[in-house]
Amino acid sequence: MLALGALVVSPVQAAFNWNFTYNDVVNNTNVGFDDPTFGAPRRATFEAVANYVSSTLDGSGTIDFTLNNSQTDGGGALASAGTLYFTSPNGFSNGILFQHASTGTDPLGGTHDGSATFDFGYNWNSETDAPAGSEFDLYTVSLHELTHALGFASLADANGDSQISGGNPGVYGVFDSFLERGDGTALFSTTGGATFEGTAGDLTSEDVFFDGPNARASNGGQPIKMYAPSPYEPGSSISHIDSSLGFAVMTPSIAPGVEKRTYSAQDLGILQDVGWTVAPELVPEPSGTALLALGAVVLFVRRRRVV
Fold first, then answer.
1. Which residues contact 202 (CB under 8 A, 6 or more apart)?
2. How far apart are the first and last CA of the chain?
3. Is residue 18 a contact partner of residue 63, using CB atoms and an 8 Å limit?
4. What's the rounded Cα separation, in Å, for the pair 124 and 25?
5. Which of 276, 152, 290, 151 is nearest to 214 (CA)?
6. What is the mean pLDDT of residues 180-190?
7. What is the signed CA dihedral for 117, 123, 128, 130, rounded to 10 degrees?
8. How far is CA 77 from the centre of its chain?
9. In sequence order, what are the residues at sequence separation of 6 or more whose Cβ sits closer than 8 angstroms to the Cβ of residue 18?
10. What is the pLDDT of residue 280?
11. 167-192: buried (b, 16+ CB within 10 Å) or exposed (e) per residue?
12. pTM of the predicted model as reported, rounded to 2 decimal places
């Protein structure tokens, strides 16, 4: 028990910084983040999202992130994003962005840590005011995509093989290490560094859960159901919280007019389990409601948010 008048010192959070390269601007595309009217507010909104992330999660150093040339056809996913990964050794990894942010050391020495692509062929709310009913909220989608780049992603393909190193065992996400079937059977083990021990059918069973201690604490003591539809959806399956938890940032799709601009307890619980330190005041409370080898080849895995 503290004596009256005792000084209570809260932990100090270290915030990491961001260094953005907008290829639209570099290449003078005149669209997307370089649009004469909407380019500047789009850049400001994306950077506001990044500031929210770095104020929520502990880290150090400066993260190098590239916004690729924007798409404008409105014919596919709203956006996609990811981080780079080393292709060896086998094991569970959060990727280069996490490594840079958690150690303060740049493992690639100048190459970007992650990147994103947006399709501005859709009707977007490009600023930080509330979206109209017909607009997709850029803030919400940006937060979702940056979170994939933080390591909120499965690296398994439709057969369970590693998308990074190929084959099984292989390089999988730390995220993958917490996945299990509804009966509690783990889908991955540490055999051979990291091994998928399930079946292709498990990944389309609608019966996959994330079972980390912080995820459970955030979800009424229960594991969090993941998005595992049939057929398998590349870039989306297993890498999202099931749509039934509609309040989470990391559900697989978003409707126009909807905004989700802060992490849910479940989003934060999963981020904690994969290795991020959450600002003390944001750590989810239990509720009753529902260094890798340098010189290895680097691959990039992208996750997307669909319409």
1. 160, 181, 187, 208, 228
2. 53
3. yes
4. 19
5. 276
6. 98
7. -140
8. 16
9. 47, 50, 51, 54, 62, 63, 65
10. 74
11. ebbbbbbbbbbbbbbeeeeebbeeee
12. 0.89
Compute the distance between CA of residue 295 and CA of residue 107 in angstroms, rounded to an integer. Answer: 10
Whether cis (ω within 30° of 0) applies to the bond prior to 280 is no
pLDDT given at position 16: 87
Per-residue pLDDT for 74 more than 70?
Answer: yes
- Work out the percent of the chain whose per-residue pLDDT is above 70: 87
Task: Characterize the bridge pairing of strands 208-210 and 179-181.
Answer: antiparallel
Kindly report the backbone phi and psi dihedral angles of residue 125, in degrees, each rounded to the nearest multiple of 5, phi listed first: -90, 105
* pLDDT tens per residue across span 108-136: 887 899 999 999 999 999 999 999 999 99
205 backbone φψ class: left, alpha, beta (φ>0; ψ -120 to 50):
alpha
Sign of CA dihedral 269, 271, 276, 281: negative
Q: Is 84 helix (H, G, I), strand (E, B) or coil?
A: strand
Q: Is the omega angle on the peptide bond into residue 223 within 30 degrees of 0, that is, cis?
A: no
**Helix ranges restricted to H, the chain:** 23-26, 39-56, 96-103, 138-149, 213-218, 265-274
- Residue type, position 143, single letter: L
Of the candidate ranges 104-108, 139-143, 174-178, 195-199, the one whose mean pLDDT is the lowest: 104-108
**What is the DSSP annotation of 105-158?**
--SSSSS-SEEEEEBTTS-EE-SSSPPPTT-EEHHHHHHHHHHHHTT-S--B-T
Q: What region does 28 belong to: left with phi over 0, alpha with psi -120 to 50, or beta?
A: left
pLDDT of 302 > 70? The answer is no
Residue 251 has a pLDDT of: 97
Q: Which among 169, 177, 170 is positioned nearest to 151, based on CA atoms? A: 177
Read off the pLDDT of residues 153-183 as tens digits, 9 standing for 90 and up: 999 999 999 999 999 999 999 999 999 999 9
